[in-house]
Every structure is written in structure tokens, then in C-alpha cells.
Amino acid sequence: MGKRLQRVSLAVGLEVVAYGWFLAFLRVESALGSLALVAAAAALAVALARAGALAWLRRELDSGVARAAAIFGLALAATFPALVRDNPYWIFTLNLTLLYVLVGLGLNLQTGTTGLVNLAGAAFYGTGAYTAALLARDAGVPGVASLAAGTLAAAAVGALLFAPVLKLRGHYLALVTIAFGVIFHLVLNNTEALGGPQGIYGIPDLVLGPWNLQRSPRLAGVELHFYANYFWLLLALAAAAVWWAWRVYDSPVGLVLNAIRDDPWVAGTSGVNLPRWKLAAFTAGNVLIGVAGSIYAFMIGYISPENFTFEESLFMLSIIILGAMDSVPGVVTASVLLVVLTEKLRAIQDYRFLLYGVLVVAMLIFRQQGLWPPPWRRYGLPAAAPSSGGGAAR
Amino acid sequence: MSLLHVDRVSVQFGGLVALDRVELAVEPGEVVGVIGPNGSGKTTLFNVVTGIYRASSGRVVVAGHDVTRAHPDAIARLGVARTFQRIRLLERLTALDNLLVGYYGRSAVGWLELLRAGRVRRQLQRFVEQARELVTLFSPELAQQLDRPVAELPHIDRRRLEICRAMAGRPRLLLLDEPTAGMSPEETRQMVHDIQKAAASLPGLAIVIIEHDLSVIQGAAQRVVCLNYGRKIAEGSFEQVVRSEAVRVAYLGSDGDGVAAGS
Predict the structure, then answer these.
(1) How do beta strands B80-82 and B4-13 pair?
(2) Residues ≥6 apart with Cβ < 8 Å to B68
(3) Contacts of B240 (CB under 8 A, 6+ apart)
(4) Which of A37, A304, B139, B218 yields a CA-CA distance of 20 to 30 A from B22?
(5) CA atoms of A39 and A35, how far apart (whole Å)
(6) Are B101 and A267 within 8 A, CB to CB?
């Protein structure tokens, strides 16, 4: 028991340090200062990793304390809106991050796990957003129902699109998704009923039961920006999605989907019904993307075709490329990096893109497998002999 | 009723006739060897039986079910399993993962069942134990290394894993495509012995084995079929087949020293 307490304290301590660093990073105004903080953290991380700290950490933090660490981490994260209440902009940024976690997990299930390259992430996101927004504004559909409808619409459109190409092999699905993304954008721009290029404005407040998410919450007499509501909602959803995605990854389902991705002949001759599982994975991924899109519409209150372009789809896909294919922790890491860094680096304007270029090239040279490759599956079984370590060798 | 009935099956790729009205019946418990020069259609025969290729004409019947137009997974669920001429493993995964595909291919748990962690884990533990027992028949050392990535394993272990994956789903018909390719005579003998040992745990299992090494066929198969240019040119006992005139001609006018004919 003492051992366990020690491990929990270690995990909690690490979380507090990381959180403190993150808050400091957001506070620092100058670009130079933030770069220095990033460099310091990166240098520390690399040095520790070289010293074998990662393997040690993985052992120390294994299963037994994972749950306690996760609960504490969530509680810690929930304080975020209060700690940056003078700057709602950062709450908004973190909300975007959480939305991208949901989207990234969906795309990862499709592209990373099952090998179904989806280049229309933004279009499915937009399907959810437009459906929810139109239903809420023009049909007076209540909040929960609009969110559910937006989610279902994204999933259903994906399934309809997917059914005809199920039998095709290779990259046909990727081509079909590109076409869908372009058509989606064109249709939005040219359909009066969908607002045309002006998009949809005046999206009503999101009300879930007694909770109006557009009203500023008061906590112990302190008023927070209404973004805090969305932060908590998205935090809960993202946490649930991460939990579920990990469950899928570390299970026979994730394995079967990997088999489809890596060798359809092996999967097929082992008895895997390929069309069924591909459709299931694609649809489940779109559920996550769709629910994120629906919430996004309510949060920003105004959506237009320009939110759902092909470039946006590419950005979404870059999350799983940067984070590592089929990696749940990779999606979370890359979402935080890409969204927060983008906002942080607004100060240095055009040099941002230079930095992206450097980042991409550096990744391709030094770490093609992504930032956080998935660990070997253990299926929640107790560890046997010391395994050959994480997927870093891939 | 035969377990497998390949009924006058032809496979054409454009102008090329890969299989030409091939007839083959396999009974439960039988071991049938398939020989023939390179490009004679042996692997095509496996591909058409497992649903990877579709017959241009003729029928494939497995245990009374016409599977001529069936997809590979449906055929696998009837109890047909196979290995591949060039080993096909899921290279990014561990040895255990690869074996579990054999167990879960037929019955992966659904999304909702994932919520019932206890049940899923018990089933998994059972499969892991079975996998370890099965691999132990081939190599006790390998059975201790199932958490290793398959890409790191030596050729012979990779072949063992592929065969174990095929046997994992307790098939009725096992199709082995050159299981001893690239192995030394000693390894070959060992592999054949191990396959027979493992097959003994599946009563009634029928095996069709493609081999270049005729000594393997001689020891293991009760019946031999020889293909050449997509046609069946001989069928019978090993001695009958290697002595047949057609087979000698097919193997480049060999003087009857059939063992040397393999390449």
C-alpha cells in the first residue's frame, strides 16, 4: 500500500509540474520567452528520455495508478478556466484543442487504426455543425437533440458515402473523401437555404437541461466567461472519448482493425468480415467528428463554409500524422501542440509557417513514426516478462 | 460428401489460363500434396479455394456449401485456413497479436462488449493460453517470446507463427503453401514433424500442402496431385505420380530422379 501511495504521489506530482509549466507557458507574453520555455522543456524531456526515464516512468505508473492519476489530472484540468479567467481567449483555445482531440480520435480510428484515409474530416465536422445549427435555429430543436442529430448526420452521411466504395481497394476511399470535401464546400457556398457564403449566424444558446452554456457561470462569487461551460463539457467528452478509444485500441477490436489495415488478405482469410468492420470503424470515427462539429457550431455561434475547407481537413489529418498513427496519446499530444502553439505563435506572424516547415522537416528526418507511437498491445493483461519496450522502434 | 470439392475450376487472367478445369476432392483427415513446376497454378488453386480469386468457371464446394462466389471471410468461417507462399504476418505487431488474429478473425468482440471488461478479459486469457500451448508444440522457446514484435523474429519462427495462426481457429481444412521454403533439410524435417503433431490435436483435419521438396510430400501426403500449366496432369500415390510420364515431362524431362526436380 505504501508503494502504491508513493506511485500515486509521483504521478500527481508530475501532473502538477506539467500543469504549472503549461500555465506559465500561456502567461509568458514574448515569443522569445515562450520559445525558451519550450526549448527548456524539450531539452529536459530529451535528456530524461536518453537516461531511460521513460521506461522507468512507464513501469512506475503502470495500471495500478493510471486511474487515480487520470481522475486527479481531470480535476486539475477542470480548474483551468478559473486560473486564466482574465484571459478567456485561452479558454477558447483550449476548447478548440479539446474539439481537435475528439476529431483526432475519430480520424485516428478511421485512418490510423483501420487504414481508411479520410481527407474530408472538415466536411464531416461541418455536416455535424450545419445540421445542429440549422435544427436549433430554424426548427427550434432543443440542445441535446440538435447535438444528437448533428452527430447522427455526420455518421449517416459517412456511411452513405462509404457504402459504394467498400468493395474497392487501395486509395479509392481517399479520393472519394477528397471529392466529398470539395463538393461539401461548394454546396454550402451555393445553397441559399444553407446561408450561402454568409453561413449561418444567430445560432441559439446551447441549453442542456438546466444548464445554459452561453451564460457566464458563477463559482464562489467569481464570474467566468461562458467559454468555461464549453470547456467543462468538452473536457468530459474528450476524457470519455480518450477512455473509449484506448479501450478499443487495447482490445481484439483494435487488433482486428489493424489486421484490416496491414493485410486485408490475412484479415479476410482469418475470417474477418472486412466490409462490416470498415463501415463500423468509419462510422464510429464520424460520430466523434460529428459531435465535435455540432458543439463547435453552438460555441462560436456563427459558422460559414470557410470553417470547413480542404485545408482544414488536412490540418485535422496532420494531428494524427504528427502524433503517430493509431496512437491515442499521440492524438492528445499533437492536438495540444498544434492548436496551442499556433495561437501562441500568432505574435511572430508569418514566421509561424517557417517554423511549421522546420517542424515537419525535423519530424521527417528524426522521427518518422510520430511523436508518441502506440505502445504494444497488452489487452489489459498483467505484464509478463519485461517486454521489448514501446513502439519506438517502429 | 467431400470436405472440399474443386469442381472443374478454371481461373483466367486476361488471356492467361492459370487454372484449367481442375478437379480435386479432399476428404476429412486426408493429407494431400500438390506439386508442379513454378507457375503451374498451385498457389492460384489455394487463392481460388480461399476466395481471394474468383473462378472463371466451375464450382468450389466446402462441406456442402457452394463458395464459388463467397468472400474470404465466409470461407474461413466454414473452417478453411491457410498460410501463404511468402509469409504474411502483421509486421507492425507482436507475435501474440498475430496469433490472436487467428482466434478473433471469426469472432471479434463488438464495440459494446468492450464495456464488459471481465468477460472480454477471460476470453482473451483463454485464447492466450491456447496460443501458447499451440506454439509450444512447435517451439517452446518461441512460446516464451510471444510479446516480441514479429519483425524481429527469425524466418523459421515467423513460419511457425503463420502456421499457428492458421490453426488457431480450429480449421477443418488447412492449406499450407510451401511451409518449408527456405529451410535446411533438418529444419524441414522438424517442421513437418511439428505440423503433424499439431494436426493430431484437431481430429478430422484435412491438409492440402504445396511443396517443392518432394521428400516432404513423400513422407507426409497420402495422395499427390501434380499441376502443370494450370492442368492436373497426375493424381495418385506419391510413387504413382512421380513415375508418371506426364510428370516427368513437366519437370523438364527429368530422368525420374524426382527429388532433384524441386528448385
Answers:
(1) unpaired
(2) B54, B55, B58, B59, B60, B61
(3) B224, B234
(4) B218
(5) 6
(6) yes
* Contact between residue A385 and residue B147 where contact means Cβ atoms under 8 Å apart: yes
Q: How far is CA A343 from the centre of its chain?
A: 17
* Contact check, Cβ <8 Å, B125/A273: no
* Cα separation, B69 vs A383, whole angstroms: 44
Residues 6+ apart with CB under 8 A from B189: none
Q: B41 Cβ partners below 8 Å, 6+ apart?
A: B11, B18, B19, B20, B22, B227, B229, B230, B231
**Mapping DSSP to helix (H, G, I), strand (E, B) and coil, where does residue A357 land?**
helix
| CA neighbours closer than 13 Å in the CB half-sphere of residue B211 | 29
Measured between CA atoms, the residue of chain B closest to residue A249 is: B114
Q: Which chain B residue shows the shortest CA-CA distance from A260?
A: B90
Among the listed residues A377, A379, A380, the one whose alpha carbon sits nearest the alpha carbon of residue A390: A377
What's phi and psi for B153, nearest 5 deg? -85, 150
Check residue B119 and give left, alpha or beta (phi > 0: left; psi -120 to 50: alpha).
alpha
Q: What SS3 class is residue A216?
A: coil
- pLDDT tens profile B58-100: 999 999 999 999 999 999 999 999 999 999 999 999 999 999 9
The CA radius of gyration of chain A, in Å to the nearest whole number, is 21
Q: Model confidence over A254-265: pLDDT tens digits?
A: 999 999 999 999
Q: In whole angstroms, give the CA distance from residue B229 to residue B232.
A: 8
Query: What's the complex ipTM?
Result: 0.92
Q: What is the tally of helices (H) and strands (E) in chain A?
A: 16, 4
Q: Which residues contact A153 (CB under 8 A, 6 or more apart)?
A: A127, A128, A131, A290
Tell me how close the Cα of A248 comes to any Cα of chain B, in angstroms: 7
